[in-house]
Amino acid sequence: MLMEILCTFMVMSSFHFSHSEHMHESRTGLIIPLYDNSSSAWDELIMEKHRHPTMPVITIINPNNGPGQTIDSNYVQGVENLQSGGIVVLGYVDTGYGSRNATLVESEIDSYKNWYGVNGIFFDEMANVPGMEHYYANLTTYVKTHDMTMTVGNPGVDTLPSYVGTVDNIVLYDNANLPPLQLFEGWHENFKKNNFSFLSYGVDSIDRDHIKSLAKHVGYLYVTDQKGANPWTVLPEYFNKLVKIVESSKLVVIK
């Protein structure tokens, strides 16, 4: 009888150790397009990051629908300030849904690295149809072998499971208003949430509960009240509130 009790205790202890070993905190961060070198917006972002140092923050720069033809000293200093503040900086590159020549894309990647020392690349207009997976996987390899650490692809809509892993993160929603929760369910739940993100603009006021529910399914998100052709030039009026909501969305998950 004593032996049975000891065996049972050992099995339960082993299970408890294994269970705890596979628990980890999954924190959602912010991914913020700032397509203007306005020092006020960048300074505000850096100050907010200082107030919340453990929350992951990515920002995307876009000097001229890409790196442009010449280096911009304002961006040089701005990127340095952002990185010194603990913010990951990505350079914007348009891929034309996979139609742009990969050599041209690589030349823009080179410009971002050589001129601005960015941490990675944001591939806009990412394809989401079968057959272009290798295009983005090869570009990610190019980025990683040139001393950068992150790629994000933006089809702006739902994609195929075959694209997961071709970049580090995929923006599944880039549109007005908040995305429906159902967008991130189904096959997406077979992958870690860090593979996905969303961008929402034209949101006049933020719904705390909805954002916290969405944060359970994405690694990064951003919500702004800005509208128009380019809603990515300034931070929203409620930015501080958004940061607090996202920071409070930390989960303990079992994988």
SSE order and pairing:
Elements: H1 2-21, E1 23-26, E2 29-33, H2 39-51, E3 57-61, H3 73-84, E4 88-94, H4 102-116, E5 120-124, H5 133-144, E6 150-154, E7 169-176, E8 196-201, H6 208-215, E9 220-223, H7 239-247, E10 251-254
Parallel strand pairs: 2-3, 2-9, 3-4, 4-5, 5-6, 6-7, 7-8, 8-9
Antiparallel strand pairs: 1-10
In short:
With 255 residues, this protein is of the alpha/beta class.
The percentage of residues in β strands lies in 15-25%
What share of residues is helical? Answer: 25-40%
The top level CATH class name: Alpha Beta
Order of helices and strands: HEEHEHEHEHEEEHEHE
Straight-line distance between termini: 35 Å
CATH topology: TIM Barrel
Integer average pLDDT: 89
In terms of structural class, how would the helical and strand content be classed? alpha/beta
Biggest sheet record:
8 strands, parallel, barrel
Domains (count): 1
Cα Rg: 20 Å
What would you say the CATH architecture is? Answer: Alpha-Beta Barrel
The CATH H-level homologous superfamily: Glycosidases
